[in-house]
Amino acid sequence: MEIWINPACSKCRSAVSLLDAEGADYTVRRYLEDVPSEDEIRAVLDRLGLEPWDITRTREAAAKELGLGEWARDAGARDRWITALAEHPGLIQRPIITADDGTAVVARTEEAVRDALSR
């Protein structure tokens, strides 16, 4: 299991605390420092069963600068969104846990973290 976190994020810290409390075996990835490649983002999206716009923090300054609110949200625009996430990792919703069964969850709630632990 791996968790993508921003240590400054309270939801990330809560998720890590819960994983620790449950004795989970996991690896921390500080994705702002260890930026995921476009291929890694695609793989996580496949595991999540989501599209890139579903995990994009559209209220961030970088999103506004890029004009993401105006971008199409369809198959033709998918690669453009993935490139934006790879170039601006602060736009990636957090935390994301990749579970041992090959799935992943956006673990913003205790319930989502527990769901990842159960997989």
Automatic annotation (TrEMBL):
Belongs to the ArsC family. This is Arsenate reductase. It holds the Pfam family ArsC. GO terms for molecular function: arsenate reductase (glutaredoxin) activity. SUPFAM superfamilies: Thioredoxin-like (SSF52833). It comes from Streptomyces griseomycini. It comes from the Bacteria. Keywords: Oxidoreductase. Gene3D superfamilies: Glutaredoxin. Its EC number is 1.20.4.1.
